[in-house]
Design goal:
Blueprint lengths: L1 H35 L6 H22 L15 H35 L13 H27 L15
């Protein structure tokens, strides 16, 4: 199960990276179009779609790598059972909120498909297509938060302490 979850998080991160490269392509196309006098319809809209996809699909991977911002004002002062209860509470609340985000993201995507909702910009993209990446990213984030809660409950979760550098330092 652990390897399947890790593959899910890594796969979502790889998709996020591909969307980031696609975003770069849209921005470069727009810049080159202005420089050389041609226009590709929808580059601004697609750049926005790709940015949202990249952000949402990277959320779970970022969480699992310990790269989300943690406010350690309370956790730095707590030890033992009190710290564990706070972590379980925070992860439970985050799981609940991410479940709501996932539910409403999937619902929005489904309704956009059902009502044939189309982008109002000149690209006329069916909106369920870019909304799908948001829904998938939110669902994977929910899975990752529940995974973190279970690891914390079992006493297997590893979190950098206030005196330890994070991965990005």
């Amino acid at each position: 199960m652990r390897s399947a979850l890790d593959r899910l998080y890594d796969g979502a991160a790889a998709l996020a990276a591909l969307f980031m490269v696609a975003l770069l392509g849209m921005v470069l196309t727009s810049i080159l179009g202005r420089e050389f006098g041609f226009h590709v319809r929808g580059t601004d809209a697609y750049a926005g779609y790709f940015m949202a996809a990249s952000g949402f699909l990277a959320l779970a991977h970022t969480l699992k790598r310990g790269e989300h911002i943690r406010v350690t004002l309370l956790t730095a002062r707590l030890r033992g059972a009190a710290l564990r209860r706070l972590e379980l509470f925070a992860l439970g609340l985050a799981s609940l909120l991410s479940l709501l985000l996932a539910y409403y993201s999937v619902r929005l995507c489904w309704q956009s498909k059902l009502f044939n909702d189309i982008s109002t910009s000149n690209d006329a993209t069916p909106l369920w297509i870019p909304q799908l990446s948001m829904a998938v990213g939110a669902v994977i984030l929910f899975i990752a938060l529940v995974d973190e809660w279970v690891l914390e409950f079992r006493g297997q979760r590893r979190v950098a302490g206030p005196d330890q550098p994070l991965h990005n330092e």
